[in-house]
Amino acid sequence: MTLHSRKDDCAAASAHQDATLFFDDLHKPLTDLMAVKEADHCLYCYDAPCIKACPTSIDIPTFIHQIRTGNVTGSARTILSENIMGGTCARACPTEVLCEQACVHNLAETKPVEIGLLQRYATDHLMAKGGPHPFQRAVETGRHLAVIGAGPAGLSFAHRAAMLGHRVSVYEARSKPGGLNEYGLAAYKMVNNFAAREVEFLLGIGGIDIMYDQPLGGVLTLNDMRLQHDAVFIGVGLGGVNDLGLEGEDKDGITDAIDFIEQVRQSDDPSRIKLGQHIIVIGGGNTAIDAAVQSKQLGAENVTLVYRRGESQMGATGFEVDLARRNGVKVVLWSKPVAVQGVQAVTALTFERTQLVDGRLTGTGDSYDIACDRVLKAIGQKFDGAGLLALDTSYGKLTVTDDYQTSVTGVFAGGDCIATGEDLTVQAVEDGKQAALFVDSWLQNN
Amino acid sequence: MADLRCSIAGIDSINPFWLASAPPTDKYINVVRAFEAGWAGVVWKTLGEDPPVINVASRYGALYGSNRGVIGFNNIELISDRPLEVNLREIAQIRKEWPDRVIIGSMMAPVDERAWKDLAIRIAGAGVHGIELNLGCPHGMCERDMGSAIGQVPEMIEQTTRWVREAVDIPVFTKLTPNITDILWSAEAAKAGGADAISLINTVNSVISVDLDAMAPNPVVDGKGTHGGYCGAAVKPIALHMVAEIARSPETQGIDISAIGGIENWRDAAEFIALGANALQVCTAAMLYGFRIVDDMIDGLSSYMDSKGYKTIEDFRGLAIRNTVNWNDLNMNFDTKAVIDQEACIECGRCHIACEDAAHQAIKFDVSPEGKRTFTVIDQECVGCNLCAIICPVPNCIEMRPVETDLPYLTWPDHPKNPLGGSQ
């Protein structure tokens, strides 16, 4: 992967120019020849395990069969009918622990089918082809729904609700749609402005309006929205970030990894970002990896990723951790930060080694320093309940029933902000789709 | 090391692999390259009377299997489009340069005794080992009353064979078309006409595919297409059947057979020999992969023969003929059941859905709470049809295991449920 200008390649995307134009694709897209060969590798299983492993239940053997027969547009429709953000999921899903882990080829000890790459091949084909939106709206129901948050859950809800004939208004706090797809994924996963292009494609169904710069609170209240619409869906994700809980955490140079990723994604020229030369990333999830790899790609001399437990406990998949190492990131395990060094700006972090004692993570008392001029915290995000205090929560997130109903009648929620949220784009898309189906039947009785 | 030498129609050959009359045997350079690669003989591309024919562009179409592998092929090319004199001069030259290799001259002519005899005599004069009558070309030439137009009429097969037999004193091969109702009528006619050997099959009449943009059959020639000759791996089963019928028919058994049709490797070759073929002709595989494929044909056939203890081709030639019988001679009391090797199973479920939708609902599908998928054969429902074993992607995972029984060999004519009687 290298950093370079892609501006010439994507004049068409220049309306929403961002850093994704500067990064090379993490995975090269399949050519026609590669796609047909890879599709031939699929055994077309019956009641396939990969379908069950996909949170959105995409009919994977069918879409791959359609690639094999040359019906690539039909293949994309098969994917998108279950997952309207199949393009992002093809890029960002940890397929090695989802569909591809379930592929029966693993049992045969042969290479699993590259389902993610085939899904990207089909969805890219359809989006590149253009033409009318592949799905049609049902007859207008006259119902008007509000969605809070234009991330994967909210947009998935909006698309399915619009397809079912409802009118949808989406209220987005930021100035762009896409949520984490736009702000929170590494640029090398979403090259050529894919998040924005996908939203544009999704809105092609019609019946959806997005209002930007509309955060909850102030003039926009949940109560008003409920009164003005037939139902409300909340897909606000996780707006807060966990702290290390250390004294001196506010020193210059210590920032949230998610903010750094956003800064990279939204930059016109990420090579000009003032990053520092000695970076410590704290955390073991995919956000930590995204931040560490991009730091290295942007030219930082040393990037050290520190995680308090072992590699097998990391939230990031094996592929992601290898990706970090391949990019020159030093991965340090079994260490937790205990002190911040520096006067005004951070100059080093002190770590204590950790170990498991009777299943509990404990410090060993043995400590060491790592010098740094920048610390990126990626120890998890948390639900920000501003404007949603009327709703019950559990485990710090919104409580919903099996049909995505919150504690307030007519208010539904899904995605990362609900208690069962899994911090996975594909799960958020599924929540939005299922919630729209439940809301549709709820509306028929209300 | 097994001895691969063979003999057909009295012609000795260093191995059984010849190239069939087709583009790869069209001219000096191709044939020399084939001999350098190890082919034992060629049947020169069919010669006709001057002036030579003119071909069109394009000429070929293909039927693809997975991974763009060509499993079927068709062509609308005619016979040699070069002057007869040029072809004969090149044949004579190669005969001198390659004395241990076989060259057969393929020919066709209008239904006229003088035409057949004159052409046969001229070709024999070039020094060929034998003459092959092309009575099979199913496209183009048949519209000029040659090729399959002759080969579809037994009386004309006999007549043309006799004309050539009378005209020359070298072996005569009559090449048959599969585009008939019963190959035995053609074979018997060739035998009656005095053929020293029968070559079969020529190509099968076909439209290989339709170009859905041009709305015309492939290969498309300026917006239009025509039926062509189908060959390649996909026609092998048709050829095996026809060779077997000739080999086991009391009227034709014993006549030498030069087998043609989808031979791509040593195993295909061995199958034709097992059904009685004396020698083999290959075309499509050489066109798809080049002449080098003969290396493994020779090596593989030799290894197979060594593994079975066959020292010469004659040791196993025709051994499968006695086991090729009419349906009415099969044992109705034989039974076999599918057995799934649970260790080898990769849980794809293909056997289940195939049996469920298209066979006898004989494969049970269970999922454990942990998600392990288990497929089990229900013996009472299994009729032993082979479908599951065929579609299973794992070789040898599903075995068709014969059921032990004390029942006697019982054919349908003798079966008590046969309404037309039976001897019991």
Describe what you observe in this structure:
The complex is a heterodimer of chains A (446) and B (424). Chain A is an alpha/beta fold. Chain A has 3 domains: 29-129, Alpha-helical ferredoxin (Fumarate Reductase Iron-sulfur Protein, Chain B, domain 2, Orthogonal Bundle); 144-239 and 383-444, 3-Layer(bba) Sandwich (FAD/NAD(P)-binding domain); 241-380, 3-Layer(bba) Sandwich (FAD/NAD(P)-binding domain), CATH 3.50.50. Chain A has 15 helices and 17 strands. Chain A has helices at 32-41, 49-53, 60-68, 72-82, 86-92, 99-102, 115-129, 152-163, 180-183, 194-203, 222-228, 257-266, 286-297, 318-326, 425-444; strands spanning 144-148, 167-171, 208-211, 231-234, 240-241, 254-256, 278-282, 302-306, 330-332, 335-341, 348-357, 360-371, 374-377, 381-382, 393-394, 397-398, 411-413. In chain A, the strands form 5 sheets. Chain A has a 5-stranded parallel β-sheet with strand order 3-2-1-4-17, sandwiched between helices. In chain A, helix 4 (72-82) crosses helix 7 and helix 5 packs antiparallel against helix 7. The termini of chain A are far apart. Chain B is of the alpha/beta class and 424 residues long. Chain B has 2 domains: 6-316, Aldolase class I (TIM Barrel, Alpha-Beta Barrel); 328-413, Alpha-Beta Plaits, CATH 3.30.70. An 8-stranded parallel barrel of chain B has the order 3-4-7-8-9-10-15-16, surrounded by 8 helices. A 4-stranded antiparallel β-sheet of chain B has the order 5-6-14-11, with no helix packed on it. Chain B has a two-stranded antiparallel ribbon with strand order 1-2. Chain B starts with 5 loop residues before the first strand and ends in a 22-residue tail after the last strand. The model of chain B has no long low-confidence stretch (mean pLDDT 97). At the A-B interface, helix 1 of A face helix 12 of B.
